[in-house]
Amino acid sequence: MKNFKQSKLLQTLPKQFFASLVEKSGKVVAEGHDVINLGQGNPDQPTPQHIVQSMQNAVLKPQHHKYAPFRGHDFLKEAVAAFYKREYDVVLNPATEIAVLFGGKAGLVELPVCLLNEGDTVLVPDPGYPDYLSGVALAKANMEVMPLEEKNNFLPNYQNISESVLKDAKLMFLNYPNNPTGAMATAAFFEETVELANKNNICVVHDFAYGAIGFEGNRPISFLQTAGAKNVGVEIYTLSKTYNMAGWRVGFAVGNASVIEAINLLQDHLYVSLFSSIQEAAATALLDSQHCVDELVEMYEERRNVLVNGLKEIGWDVNAPQGSFFAWLKVPNGYTSESFSDYLLENAHIVVAPGIGFGSYGEGYVRVGLLTSTERLQEAVDRIKKLQLFS
Fold it and tell me: Closest by alpha carbon to 328, among 357, 380, 370, 365?
């Protein structure tokens, strides 16, 4: 069989760091060990039943068996607009300020291709969601990192970005509640962001994947709630986390009309929109009772408390995340993020994600997911206690 060589473009794509983590944990499972996987970002709860029922009903409709409109059904974009007005008091034009996406990741990877030319500069948070780098590579753009450090509450310090970098920058990625740190943005930070973007003609892309998940009564704020935000950027929202619809692959971009048009234009050439029945179920999720979301956030907060309080009791100095379904924990002295992850896997059969996989400023941390039961989280704490790392 002929072996056709991959394009140079494909060869420039970043390596998937977490593939090795899956391989390592798979070997331990194959050896017959009971592995507690806290390294994943895949929601463990089922999609709420009323959304599933909506999908089941929609599948029976013959009109949904045809191609959907290229840019998505009006009823879904109108539902998105109603959702943003209800939840954030943000007014959106369904026709020009909303793009339907094949999950949030698609939009995040597409945007550099939509807006950048070869050699343009992108500002990327470090640590951050690794797939931001995929879009940067596809666009053949240059990347400048914005360090997220604990001393600045894991917010980028814009004062540390040089004037020359700001002059060249065309795009900026932000993500709050943050993956992997669990930090939340403030209104003042978003105001500073809008001012910076306006001054330097930078398009801001706010990844709002964990927009529903804030703890202790602190509700995450939308970037678009900031005065002038729609003028300088867009927000990417996914139904994956809010409604446990990760496998359904449905999300949307909202905000600046010129950016939305660029996304739609690219997708016109790539797709013929989402299956109409999924769009109908997504509209149901956005418009119907949000009680299921409230219950989900309560569950994650309970899990967070079990994990964080348990780790503190055994002597691990950890901070509770403000939002998302991740905890960002400093590794003990003498370990790197990867060596500590390997140690936990080998000696406690617990999988965590090494911080270095999220960028160089992730070194010294591990990311722990709250995506298993409180009983399993307590079991993980008990296993770590037996290692006597903090005694």
Answer: 365
